[in-house]
Amino acid sequence: MKSNDQYATDNASTNKWKDGTYNTVAHGRNADFDIEVGIKDHQIKQIKISDHNSESKGIGSKAVAELPSRIIKAQSTDVDAISGATVTSNAIKYAIRNVLDKNRD
């Protein structure tokens, strides 16, 4: 398991990203799973999470279901973790933040 520092979010710089579709892997509580982040007009427009069936149903699966819309709405990974699904939430946020950081305009 990763330390909390590795999952911390950083929104110090402006949120302007290169358009494109980017793939990453999150290291969840029970297994790794794939995430696709779609950027259009320099904004997060889409987040798809697949291969997450190993995450705990009703707990980790709740983070998978709810976090993408929160991140899109906030245009940031600086959103609250899903209660009870902190490890999965932080893994999702960390993976997406890495994609965003690597693709800044």
Descriptive report:
One of its GO terms (molecular function) is FMN binding. This is Fumarate reductase flavoprotein subunit. Residues 1-21 are annotated as: Disordered. With 105 residues, the chain is of the alpha+beta class. The chain has one domain (20-103): Sufe protein. Chain: A (Alpha-Beta Complex). 34% of the residues lie in helices and 24% in strands. It contains three helices and three strands; from the N terminus they run αβββαα. The protein has helices at residues 4-7, 60-74, 86-102; strands at 20-27, 32-40, 43-50. A three-stranded antiparallel sheet has the order 1-2-3. α2 (60-74) runs parallel beside α3. The chain is globular and about 35 Å long. The N and C termini lie far apart (32 Å).
Strand content: 15-25%
| Category by helix and strand content | alpha+beta
Within the CATH hierarchy, at the fold level, what is the topology?
A: Sufe protein. Chain: A
Main β-sheet, spatial strand arrangement? 1-2-3
Shape: globular
Number of helices: 3
Total domain modules: 1
Any idea of the CATH class?
Alpha Beta
Return the average pLDDT rounded to an integer: 85
Portion in helices: 25-40%
Largest sheet: 3 strands, antiparallel
CATH architecture: Alpha-Beta Complex
Report the span from N to C terminus: 32 Å
**Count of individual beta strands:** 3
* Radius of gyration, in angstroms, nearest whole number: 13 Å
Order of helices and strands: HEEEHH
Point out poorly predicted stretches.
Answer: 1-13
Protein name: Fumarate reductase flavoprotein subunit
Pfam families: FMN_bind
Region (Disordered): 1-21
Biased composition (Polar residues): 1-15
